[in-house]
Amino acid sequence: MTGIIISLLIVPLFSALLVFMIPNSRKEIFRPIGIIFSLITLTQCFYLLFSDYGKTKFVILSNYKWIQSYGLEISFGISGMSTLLLLLTSLLICVSLLSIGNEHAESKGFIGSLLALHFAINGVFISGDLISLFIFFEALLIPMYFLMGIWGGENRRYATIKFILYTVFGSVFIFIGTVYTAVISYGANGSLAVDFDSLANLALTSSQSKTLFLLFTFGFLIKVPIFPLHTWLPDAHVEAPTAGSILLAGVLLKVGAYGILRVSIPFFTEGFLAYKNFVAVLSVIGIIYGAIVAIAQIDIKKLIAYSSVSHMGYVMLGISAGGYLSIEGAIIQMINHGITAGALFMLVGFLYERRHTRNISSFGGIKITMPRYAAIFLFTSFASIGLPGLNGFVGEFMILMGSFNSYKVLTSIAAFGVVLAAIYMLWAYQRIFTGPISNEKNESLKDLDIRETLSIVPLVLLMLFIGIYPSYIESFVIQEAGFISETIALFKDIK
Amino acid sequence: MNGISEFLGINFVVIGPTLALLFTTLVLLFCTITISTPVYVKKYISFVGILITLFTIFLKFGLFARDGITSYFSEKILLDEFSLVGNVLIGLVLLLTFNSFWKTSEVIDNKTTEALILILMSASGFLLMVDAENFIMLFIGLEIGSISLYALAGLNRGDQLSNEASLKYFLLGSLASCILIYGVALLYVSLSISGVYETSIAISFIGPDNVPLTSLIGLIMVLVGLLFKVAAAPFQAWAPDVYQGSPTGYVGYMAAVAKAASFIVLARLSAISLRFILDKFDLFFTAIVILSVLAGALFATNQTDIKRLIAYSGVIQSGFILSGISFGVYGISASIFYLITYIIQLIGVFTVFSIISGQLSSDFKISNLSGLFKENKFLTITFSIFMLGIAGLPLTSGFVSKFILITNLWSYEKYLIVTVLMLTTVAGFYFYLRPIWVAAIEKTDNSIEKIKISISDKVLLGFMAASTIYFGLLPNTLVNITRWMVENYL
After folding, report:
1. Predicted confidence band of residue B233 (pLDDT cuts 50, 70, 90)
2. Residue A299 phi/psi, 5° resolution?
3. pLDDT score for B463
4. Which of A251, A488, B99, B337 qualifies as a FRET site for B455, CA 20 to 30 Å off?
């Protein structure tokens, strides 16, 4: 089992190096190599999913001495939530490798950066201590920097620097939190150990717990992103290349919520109880604000970016409600949003490759020329809105139901987000696809070819599968959600 | 050898590295003024000289293992962990920069031997400086080292900027030396002490509370003299001009060797001389650290010349290293780790510059890097690794050094300094990523043509980049070494 976990790091890293080694003359094999290696990782994730650790709470499986004289160790482990997110990552890497146009697929830098990103994301989800979590959290930035910087849009310099500075600013707080935890741990255990096992046994005073919760959560919330800290996201999405957007929306946003669920809540529960209302208010503002701003967008990518702000608001609402059902819903919503947002960005990417514009007003009536594309887009929009029977409904319903007990008013307001989602998605659909063809450039658009269809179909099938049979995916997170909500309940009782 | 030295009551092994370098310079001088020697012979002479120096450093380890911490030459020269690490560090700097300063010396017309002699001479001076127990000895070492560096900065006599650099460095440097020697004099006047250990003994004898103001001022003056050499603010004004104007091939050596030696001496002063009164210097050090990182970050943000950018980044790094040195023994070990990793990155950056811009160039704009990636992948990748290392991104040694340092500062409860340092790190990403952007990402029409890199340069750059990443992933050995350094001073 340890071998599988370590190979989740080694295989993507090796494949990235392999792609960099291959001479440019063989550029047609970059994409196959990337796909093959991400399929290998996908298989490993499936193996993990069906192993003993596929449904547990977090278990540390391997330790490595890092700095002995400080008692620092690097630990790796796995849990149900991690496995699902790892699976999502590998799947999204795989389909985005398949979906990108030839211009990107023939550049070894692009494929290599994607695979390096895969390595870093895997590292975040399997790390079993604060230090490796931080290391991989920051290491994400390097491939993203190159992906956005080299293959981004016109205004990429501004967007990239903004993205990097926002994230680094947030991670400074995580860094200081890590240092503070390590020093506290030194006082208690005589070593700076910050692995999750020793953190669970660390006795914190009330003020320490509050400070640490604020430090960690602030860093992670920037990544989520929550309402006032979200401004980097639309810029980053608009300027990033399609594959970058898919992974940014699909996985990188989840890293923030994952960090809160993994670190902030179980270890600094007292701080969580003190500040959870604040987080809940911000997330509901984010839900409504993101949705309203999305209605007004004229750029499709920006529209989906703001819809991400809205959808991640649901996740944060579920987390801050802290009940069993709402946390489970939040985890499932993370997966669902990863699938739908990834699919939407991929679809926008297809359109952009054909027309080199994302302006809604330059389309209209293109369902006549691209019927298959229109069907898939409509299906994905429904999933994103949260139509019952599709995956978006499951998570949002569970979150709203789970949080209603704790926040009656807030949850009622948040429910309007679903209506607003229907407005912005369907109105956008209407303007892009229905009616007569308004722009003559759209008359010769080609429908999706086999490669593009193949890359979107797995995501569509997953939306349907999760929508129809949600208890299957739920079975993987029951224990973890139970563990987190019990920790919260335990602290509530003590108080 | 051992028998003779014991008979004479002195042990030449202790100053072996200094002597070896001096001897090498004498041989070079002899070759130049008597017989006409081919250039490559001089290269081998100086290289063999450096190897002998490294061997004598190795011998010092043997001596240390036998005798432990000992004073030699009637308490003038000290053999302890600091001097050993300092020696190794300076040896390492010589070895890593040999290729670039040799090439620079080769193209500088008619001054090849002069340049080599200056470099080896300055290294011997700085070796003497880290070995010194007596403050006068320290001053002598510092002056031998610095004066050679002043000359080195202005060696490219046809270039105005080079002349300016040399003059500025000389004027400000001598002022700093004056301050240092004045501080030594004040110490001698007030407590009649002139040594590292004497100071701590005298202070513990009269009690930390009864230390006369004169000697405190004297100590601060000594510190200021040393802080000038590491370009900590507000004594940083010379650094950008000197880095910019000096021949690029020499700057890596000049920056690294002065920083290495001065920080080792500062660490020793903090661990031994000031150990009982370190809290009296709290305000002084805090002010210097905060000023350094803020001034460095502020000025680095809008530099167009990349050598100036690195100079201001050096000011920031000096602040970081100093913050560990100034508050306690574990902090010192963290700072030494920081120093070692930073020096490797610094030399790496300047090696890349000297390969790109030619060894003699003085001006080197950031825009000169544009389009580097297209034809020179190896240079760009190593350059990016060094810059990310200096910025402190995880997976590089820069992150580990920052992590250890901040952990120690936090345990000393220096929250203000931690806050300022972390904010500077964020700001740092803005200007450290810009050269990488220009070199690797920005699309440009006139990219730099393919530059031929010699095998030795490739090996050196590869080694430095590899160690930057290696210490980022597996820092255990180096951390243990730096912990061993300070174990005796707990």
Report:
1. confident
2. -100, 125
3. 94
4. B337
pLDDT digits (tens, 9 = 90+) for A243-255: 999 999 989 999 9
Q: What is the DSSP string of B85-142?
A: HHHHHHHHHHHHHHHHHHHHHHHSTT-HHHHHHHHHHHHHHHHHHHHB-BHHHHHHHH
Give dist(CA B197, CA A145) in Å, integer: 51
Chain B residues touching residue A68 (CB < 8 angstroms): 476, 479-480
Q: Where are the domains of chain A?
A: 268-495
| B410 with A150: Cβ contact below 8 A | no
B399:A139 CB<8 A: no
Report the complex ipTM: 0.88
Question: DSSP readout, A394-454?
Answer: HHHHHHHHHHHTT-HHHHHHHHHHHHHHHHHHHHHHHHHHSSS--SGGGGGPPPP-HHHHH
Which residues from B are below 8 Å from A113, CB to CB? none
Place of tokens 């679903």: A418
Q: Which of A434-448, B60-74, B213-227, B255-269 has the lowest mean pLDDT?
A: A434-448
The domain limits of chain B are 2-489
pLDDT at residue B317 is higher than 90? yes
Dihedral of the alpha carbons of B195, B200, B205, B206, in degrees to the nearest 10: 90
DSSP state of B207: -
d(CA B277, CA B271): 11
| Contact call for B393 and A141, based on CB within 8 A | yes
Q: How many CB atoms lie within 10 A of CB A88?
A: 24
CA of A441 vs chain B CAs: smallest distance (Å) = 29
Question: Which one of A9, A20, A64, A70 makes the best mutation probe of the B interface by having the most chain B beta carbons within 10 Å?
Answer: A70
Total-model pTM: 0.92
Residue of B nearest to A181 (CA): B407
Closest among B226, B358, B223, B338 to B282, alpha carbons compared: B223
Any idea what the Cα angle at residue B149 is, between residues B148 and B152, rounded to 5°?
90
> Picking from A54-63, A102-111, B360-369, B451-460, which range would have the lowest pLDDT averaged per residue?
B360-369
- Identity of the residue in B406, B426, B475 whose CB atom sits nearest the CB atom of A67: B475
pLDDT at A234 over 60: yes
Contacts for B290 with CB less than 8 Å, ≥ 6 apart: B319, B416, B417, B420
